[in-house]
């Protein structure tokens, strides 16, 4: 008996060790996530830790064989040799990746591809750490077969956070159904220069509107609760002040003071972090000589320490490499990686720089503590998402639930609310029900890719409703004649005489012009995916990442087309489909009606036709000011005092101001009252009446001006807004509550404070149409 007991004592440690090997603590879902993370970190080699911080491009990680998908030899090599923890764009399809409708993945095959990658990692790597799959999703998952929404500037034009949250929930669900986990979006950059190529991705020029739409996008993505099966890790882009580059050149340096940074550019990101965003992407630009990708203040001090951000920071594609190659502050990409990690960047998108970190650790330039901090941020979220227990998805669910009729309906409603009526002379719109002859003309009238914007995958025929198709469907008894007339940029292949003849034979000519972000296989691309615009480039694209503009004029012979059609004497309705506010002076002056549709997504054609017919009353409002000339730039509404004076040639005011948008009905504002309800708290109330004969929706906007402050303030600043639907003739009492956040400023010592004094409150339908105005005093 004693011998058996001694034998048991001798064997017991071996039994425990064997059990530990079979089921280590990090694989126990009942244990707290910090404990699981710490246990896993202890078991990892330096190489395995570095691997978790690498995020190479992913579209070469799979091979398609008929209706099955498996991992590629390149994927196997990266996992076996570099222990890679994340991949970007596994499902991405576009000309840059050379993934087409034939060579790419539909939702079912995408799910199979993700499963194949996870299966190899879980079964063939030493520790079985699941991989993260990061996907582009600024206005829909950039993959074949998904739902395509209006681009960011269109989403913001709805001024409807609840609707944007619904759209974002569709995007998140479609990513997760196919096996993805991280959504690159929303884009939170304030854009104040329409020459910049990425205005279309942004939510416009204002911090309050950008914050509201961005927070809605994050909430739609799950709000940081990764236990929900439809939640994604929302990645906010781009940190920080990327949308106001010098000269409008994408990625150029940004000239910006600390107070402006904290007053306008940081608050939208901070609110989105509070709403649950768990990833932040660095920006390519520098501020005051410090590249954003190596700015320790931004990531360690501000984001992680002050804001309590618990997610991870990812570089923009090759932006760490750019510390050496572009910014020239590092002698090579290894040193660039050291600078980025020390600054608080946790993941290397592109994976060149961090891949060299083993030597940096060996030489003591990067400590194990610094490395572990970054790795733990990534691992914790993998545990939170439950990937260690269930890394796989159901391909049949992906097939059935990606791009459903319900999702398409949300895309259609988003498109409807994003379209802005700029002019409606003599109430030509909506068109008469008896109209029998319509000419639909222009380069954007029947081109599905031109209405989708950048970061869009190839589309199956019939997925997209163009303007021409929408009009044909909504006016079934009319003869609808389509003539392209001209291209966006090409000046050789034109047929303006055919367009003129079509207009002469019609009761109304609908001319759809503007811009294009539609990429094609003739475009050359940088390694980052940004297009290379050069003299040899003759494709129609004039917007989207890399296509910055020196002017905002309509390119090609579009202006000639407009003037020729107008000369026929037929009433002309002009529609701009565009990624940035292009020059609109002629259309504003000469079109009988004028609409801005941005890039309205897959349902844009239906939504435009519904508005033309009167089935939908337009309610979109501009999230960005439209300049008369590039010489006015920047022309954003909330400039600091004093108010600028006019130029010799023209007014300093924009052609169309921030917040502007017309309706088929009218709205009357009255009975403004401001009541103090406590310390730094005021209730603002007024009456809003629909004065027309049709139902309509008004976006009521509340602006404040601090009449005397210790630091210079904006001449006006949007603080709150509401979408109000009113029946014809209906009147409602509307209320806003102003609190400390609305009243506070950043003082000369960079502290938030509310100062006593007089404030002017202004309410109306745009930043320049504010019929209600009064003052109140903060004591």
Automatic annotation (TrEMBL):
PROSITE patterns: GLYCOSYL_HYDROL_F3. Keywords: Glycosidase, Hydrolase. The keyword Zinc-finger does not apply. Residues 698-767 form the Fibronectin type III-like domain. Transmembrane segments: none annotated. Signal peptide: none annotated. It holds the Pfam family Fn3-like. SMART domains: Fn3_like (SM01217). GO terms for molecular function: hydrolase activity. Gene3D superfamilies: Glycoside hydrolase family 3 C-terminal domain, Glycoside hydrolase, family 3, N-terminal domain, Immunoglobulins. Belongs to the glycosyl hydrolase 3 family. PANTHER family: BETA-XYLOSIDASE, PERIPLASMIC BETA-GLUCOSIDASE-RELATED. This is Glycoside hydrolase family 3 C-terminal domain-containing protein.
